[in-house]
Amino acid sequence: MGLTDGLDERLVRKVPGAPVVLAAAEWAINAGRANALWTLTFGLRCCAMEMMAAGAARYDWARFGFEVPAASPRRADLMIVAGTVTTKMVPLVRRLYAQMAEPKYVIAMGSCAISGGPFAYDTYSVVKGADKIVPVDIYVPGCPPRPEALLDGMLKLQKKIKQSKFTAEAA
Q: Are 154 and 66 in contact (CB under 8 A)?
């Protein structure tokens, strides 16, 4: 694999030393994105308690580069959907996701947010997974998942962000 693999050849021809410059810029931007994520906490049921515990003093997700919950979805980078999503909440989840600035990420926390949980079989009003509404990047299983599991999912998201590649289409 060469230095220019995955880069737009028009861009490489225009900028001398472009592969090295782009790799350094890509690394710096991805590290900044990964280590300063503002969260939009969307707690719907029991998983919200574990999500709040993960942000509280004992687990303190801020020490890993996750900021306090954003006051507005326009400032948030990461939406954490925790709990059962009902059909009545679908327009609100979509609206909040649409208001988030790019790049935006979603974590589905708990069995209910991943697949509807135990409520998906008996009820018409439960959405069978947050990924039916918004694109989900990380799934954190459990009923409810412990704060350590959420922190592990958040760290996996950081790793995913740091490994993301820039393309000519994304610019």
A: yes
Residue 16: pLDDT band with limits 50, 70, 90: low
Measured between alpha carbons, how far is 131 from 139 in angstroms, rounded to an integer? 10
Distance CA 136, CA 113 (A): 10
Two tokens, residue 56:
């509280």
What are the residues facing 39 on neighbouring strands? Answer: 78
Tell me if the pTM is above 0.85.
Answer: no
Q: Give the integer Cα–Cα distance in Å for 151 and 62.
A: 10
